[in-house]
Task: structure prediction
Amino acid sequence: MPVALVTGASSGIGAATAVRLAAEGWEVIGAARRLDRLSQLQGVRPQALDVTDPRSVEQLVDAVPTCDLLVANAGGAFDLDPLADADVDTWARMYDVNVLGLVRTVQALLPALRSARGQVVMTGSTAGRWVYEGGGGYVAAKHAVAALRDTLRLEEQAIRVSEVAPGMVFTEEFSVNRFGGDQARADAVYQGVEPLTADDVADAIVWVATRPAHVNIDVVQLTPKQQHAAHKVVRA
Result:
């Protein structure tokens, strides 16, 4: 049975991906800070993980000695402020979880992935290709994720390296976290739009992860039909 580790698995895309992989017959370790949420995922083994804590990430080496697939999904956006008003500490937090957390996790799992001739699938974003007002911090972080995917693809010959980059996705927490818990402001983002769901993105991740071993899917970008670009959303 192939083994998959999914980070950021306590909610949203990570939770949907972990459950889907388990249903497809994988042995799945779901990793996140909130163990109580992980324990609710059917067929998924919980693993405490804070990708911003090097010691927490180091524990993956013992917890996941065999790994065929790393779904590096942990991340998030924490503001929508213009550059002139941006809080540098908030930007640093975004960089830490989206970029440095990814690097730490990949470094910890690389020996196991090399041994298995496995695969890394990174959860990127259209923000790794498009820019938009107020998105400077998150856009910079997701551009970095795209660069890391390209770099790792060149450097690692024994494993496959892929990125799934969704556009507007509705999850319970992403926009609420971005707007500091302001539910009304978060809901307004999706008003009049049928966004992607976490299951839509999980479907793409699982498809990428289940291609034949000689096939590397470099990037899959998916958006809602109404989203033509970062700055142009056609609303009903």
User: Anything to note?
Assistant: The mean pLDDT is 92. The domain at 3-233 is CATH 3.40.50.720 (Rossmann fold). The first strand starts at residue 3 and ends at 7. The two ends are 45 Å apart (CA to CA).
